[in-house]
Please model this.
Amino acid sequence: MTRIILARHGHVDWIAPERFRGRAELPLSRPGERQAEALGRRIAQSWKPDAIYTSPLSRCVHTGEAIARATGTHAGGVLGNLADTHYGQWQGLTHEEVHSRWPDELRTWFTAPELAQIPGGETLADVLVRALKVLRLVLREHGGQTVVLVGHDSINRVLLLHCLGLPLARYWRITQEPCCVNEIEIDGNAFTIHRVNETHHTLALSA
Model:
């Protein structure tokens, strides 16, 4: 069996207030750095990864480095297909700013995301194509191993939807908090989800 530990990067400043982050290069905030260290400890408690792959954006790379330090696993595998959704002309804008210019498109994004066409950006179908390429790479290069993937809110949701056999229309039914843990087991063509959006390791930081 192949096991994927799917994580999201730590907190960055554009998470609150919410903006379309996309491909913007945003460093981890101080809370995000602490979350990444806690994520590394959490993964080290339960798994011995054979490989760590991250999105090329630094918030994911640095989160992956924290996991590597905690687990003793070599970091540095960067996959362009793990990058966040390309939000085109929406990148960097708040929801209110997008609504003022593209009200119909934004309404579709929140009510029927599988149909949304972001000006100059990707569709969720485009993101799914990338997600499947990541899965194929993991199965081809790391069959029978445990692999950590560090991605973003959007690509993680799409990966999980595929593994659950759910349509892209259910995109908003899954939540991905900063430095959450998802666990996916792959046996042949069967996917089993053992954890989704586990965050107790980061919640303890504010206790």
